[in-house]
Amino acid sequence: MNTIVEKDKQFVWHPYTQQATVSDHICIVRGKDALLYDSNGKAYIDVVSSWWVNLHGHSHPHIAQKVFEQALTLEHVIFAGFTHEPAVSLAERLLKYLPENQSKIFYSDNGSTAVEVALKMAIQYWQNKGEYRKKIIAFEHAYHGDTFGAMSVSGRSAFTKPFDSFLFEVEKIAVPFAGQEEISYAQMQSVLDGDIENQIAAFIYEPLVMGTAGMKMYAPEALDKLMGACKEKNILCIADEVMTGFGRTSRFFASDHMSHKPDLVCLSKGLTGGTLPMGITACTEEIYQAFYSKEASKTFFHGHSFTANPMGCASALASLDLMEQEHTFKNINRISGMHKKFVLDIKDDIHVLEARSFGTILAVELRDTDGSSYFSKNRELIYNHFLSRGIIGRPLGNIVYAIPPYCITDEQLECFYEACRDLLFLLKKNI
Q: Same structural domain for residues 116 and 253?
């Protein structure tokens, strides 16, 4: 047994893992493009971008070089009372791609925290204006992170159950999936009409693709209508673009698909190309001005030791360099086209409840006697099936998905598709 694996079992506690039942963790020693290599030299195709963060491939030389150069110049500096060029440059460049109403960039360290910051900004925004709004509208079955505010606006599930009694009140509405658009809109209108005392501060949503809920997808027009209803009532809109940002839905941001624009945007994951942890919450000038005051009590009292870490900023700037290259969106369109073709190929299979894709995100929802559940009895079978074929696919229960780095080759994608077909054949044999 690999010494690292032995020591891992002795010293390390892994996320989302039942340590008592898990098999030995695979020791990855290096990565290149869409491949990861274990300590035995076996290669794995990383179709999940290592939890959806990797945009351009592992160990990208351009990003590595920029991080190296920054480390030799300035590795970190306190971001209260001080600033530095990478943070300013990144904010300036990002605002050119974010919705045009966005004005300021607030740095944090991960996706959950970017959401936490947005919620705190939204609530304090109203307090600074003399209105004490404390309610948030969110979708049923949403997932926004694992900190307490982020859990509060997420769906109640195994992820939140031990903490449910500690979470704040949230108005939940149905997600406007195909066929449910009018139900969702009616529920939104009911919540808004019932807000006689103006208690609602914001509406938070995962735009167009709900990740941990099972890569569930819905139409831009439906979200636009919900946002419009909120805008009419002067309620802030928070776009959680932690997963959908940076080309995942075929546009730079998922918010680009809608005519209404969010007041706050949460970013992480692909922000640094998957190289270093970093979170960002962007906001409008109107929100920023509510905090801009000679009154110390109106200050936004939130921060992190590694806020605007220069090496993280350098990584994000290098990732933006790559996003701006012509071949990146050619690859995004290539992957999107291949996904659509594959969906048409398998959608009528008896074991497929639904096959769907949006941009570079593909999901195949398998029929399951347990329903669509994170604890599907088929989860381990599916996971091991792909692993045995040299593919890292971490199924969401009975839902197989791919959200690959943009450098993945046609041949590597076809390996994944073929493994999906083999899985369906295996399920047929087990009937």
A: yes
Selecting among 44, 125, 143, 374, the annotated active-site residue is 143
Task: Tell me: do 398 and 271 sit in the same domain.
Answer: no
Task: Give, rounded to a whole angstrom, the gap between the first and last alpha carbons of the chain.
Answer: 36
Helix %, strand %, coil % of the chain (to 5): 40, 20, 40
pLDDT, tens only, 381-426: 899 999 999 999 999 999 999 999 999 999 999 999 999 999 999 8
Q: Are residues 173 and 242 in the same domain?
A: yes
Q: Are residues 285 and 367 in the same domain?
A: no
pTM score of the predicted model: 0.96
- Point out the catalytic residue in the list 33, 109, 240, 263: 240
| Same-domain check for residues 275 and 214 | yes
Beta-carbon neighbour count of residue 183 at 10 Å?
14
Tell me if residue 107 is catalytic. no
157 and 289 co-located in one domain = yes
Which residue stretches of 156-219 are H helix?
Answer: 181-193
Position 431 scores a pLDDT of: 54
- Tell me: do 294 and 148 sit in the same domain: yes
pLDDT for residue 329: 98
Q: Provide the residue type at 323 as one letter.
A: M
Cα angle 84-299-136, degrees, rounded to a multiple of 5: 110
- pLDDT given at position 371: 66
The confidence score (pLDDT) of residue 23 equals: 87
The pLDDT score that the predictor gives to residue 2 is 62
What does residue 155 show for φ and ψ, rounded to 5 degrees?
Answer: -70, 150
Active site residue 143: yes
Residue 210 belongs to what domain range? Answer: 64-323
Task: Give the pLDDT confidence of 11-66 residue by residue, as tens digits.
Answer: 999 999 988 988 899 999 999 999 999 999 999 999 999 999 999 999 999 999 99
Catalytic residue list contains 348: no
Active-site residue 16, yes or no?
yes
Choose, from 7, 16, 341, 370, the residue flagged as catalytic: 16
Among the options 269, 349, 401, 417, which is catalytic?
A: 269
Q: How many domains does the chain have?
A: 2
Regions of the chain with pLDDT less than 50 = none
**Where is the domain boundary, 323, 351, 383?**
323
Which residue among 262, 295, 323 closes a domain? 323
Contact assessment for residue 281 and residue 262, using Cβ atoms and an 8 Å cutoff? no
